[in-house]
Amino acid sequence: MWFRAMSSLATILFVITMPMTSLTSLAEEYHCGAADDPIAVQCYSREVKEFLQSWVVAWGDKDVDAYIQHYVPLDSPRIAMSRDEWEADLQRLLKQSQEIVVTLELDSLGIGRNGDLDVIFVQNYRSDNYTDVVKKQLFLKRDGGSYKIQREMIVD
Question: What is the pLDDT of residues 46-93, one digit of tens each?
Fold first, then answer.
């Protein structure tokens, strides 16, 4: 069962120049309580914000290695692509753009009982040769001490 909350997070913009704010102490960061507890959403919000900001920065810097490190190793985040196809497509897309600017506006955050997260946001992507605005969903899985993207998809 997933708990989804619309809270003050709904108005936070994840922009690469946005300063970080702490919603929990470091000691509480990985002990966020039960998934059906609304306070857990606030607890996870700092970690999710930092993760998404790091992902956006790697994307904007066109740093393929740093970008790929945000994903679960060996798995493809795209259902219709193998991991090798996804990485080749990513490298091609990043190399063909001079500038990439990505902003995210968080819509909701779901927390699974096992601690996996489900994040939905509106993504504004702009490069010198392509622009779009999509609603995206990321499924984040804890891998060691941080989250990694297990799967991503466009949602309607």
Answer: 888 899 999 999 999 999 999 999 999 888 888 888 999 999 999 998
- Asked whether 112 and 119 are in contact (CB, 8 A), the reply is no
Long-range contacts, stretch 140-143, CB < 8 angstroms, 24+ apart: 140/48, 140/51, 140/116, 141/72, 141/116, 142/115, 142/116, 143/72, 143/73
Q: Are 9 and 106 contacting, i.e. CB atoms less than 8 angstroms apart?
A: yes
Q: Report whether pLDDT(41) > 50.
A: yes
Topology of domain 2-155, CATH:
Nuclear Transport Factor 2; Chain: A, (3.10.450)
Q: In which residue are the tokens 């309580």 written?
A: 33
CA-closest candidate to residue 49, choices 77, 16, 25, 73: 16
Question: Using an 8 Å Cβ cutoff, are 45 and 26 in contact?
Answer: no
What radius of gyration, in Å, describes the C-alpha atoms of the chain?
15
Instruction: Please state the pTM of the whole predicted model.
Output: 0.73
Domain ranges of the chain: 2-155
